[in-house]
Amino acid sequence: MAEKGMIQTVLGHIRPEALGRTLCHEHLHIDSGPLGIATDPCSHHHSKINDPIVMKNLGWIRQYPYYHKPNLSIVDESEAVIEEMKYYKANGGSSIVDNTVIGLNPNVEFLKKVSEQSGVNIIAGTGFYVDITHSDETRKTPSEKLASIMEHDIISGVGTSGIHCGVIGEIGCSWPLTDSERKVLRAAGMTQEHTGCPIIIHPGRNPKAPAEILRILTEAGAKADQIVISHLDRTLLDKESILEFAEMKSYCEFDLFGIETSHYQQEENIDMPSDAQRIERIGWLIDAGFQDKITISHDIHTKHRLMKYGGHGFSHILLNIVPMMKTRQISEDVINKILIENPKKWLAFK
Fold first, then answer.
1. Is 51 known as a binding-site position?
2. Which CATH class is domain 20-36+72-347?
3. Full-prediction pTM beyond 0.90?
4. What is the pLDDT of residues 110-137, one digit of tens each?
5. Where exactly are the structural domains of the chain?
6. Which terminus of the chain faces fewer neighbouring Cβ atoms within 10 Å, N or C?
């Protein structure tokens, strides 16, 4: 297990100073197919669900990525992912947090291979995704036993691989929270209390979800300042709610950069913000003095966002978003806090 003050990667411990520019929510090996395709409101979409990913279909896939079955997995894109990580490294990227947990087909052996071949530090996640992916065994297992599974991944390594996880999550939550998800959250809180390992959360798609999740975690022993709440882009949609949540002291993550399609298939009453709107919301937090509590990422988990398929890729934030931030009067020092200093503080074992 990582020593206090160290960060635990798939290749071993590193000092925080070695972390560099970091994306805190990505997936290098993931199959979200078990979640199922999104509900189809228009009959003409159904005939396309298995169409090939070719140029004439890209416009439709980009508009409706969760109606397209082959798009929901990148487990068969190993070569493309490795090439992207090399490109990310060449463009100033240093580290990636891979949030793929049980239910999404994690593969720590692949993460180790990617790290060795690209030179990118990779921090692997342990835990369980949303209830729909829970096995019957997971649903029957008490929190204490689930905590011991996560602790084993952190302390001894995943299975017999000897590859250690360095973050708890993304722990998946629906809304309203199910009994099984509440149990997993309590297990995550216990695991952090026992190991000092950071936590990252996928909240349910409701403005009440982040605060409720933080309450459960902290009651179980977790520390708010060691927790990242992901996907605030699509969860807290106005300035007042974002600033109110920031007062709760967890990290506020905007991690859907690169998604420029306003129609959000997963929750159709939510309009997905653009990259410019994400930067605007980050600006609200900065202006209110919360620059020490912001992390950012892309949450790439589908084929169409990979560069191989004409997508923005894992270097989008470094190549496109950072310059946009500067044109919107976000200073280099604050950008470095968001990409370097905040991940360093969060990922170091306490």
1. no
2. alpha beta
3. yes
4. 999 999 999 999 999 999 999 999 999 9
5. 20-36+72-347
6. C
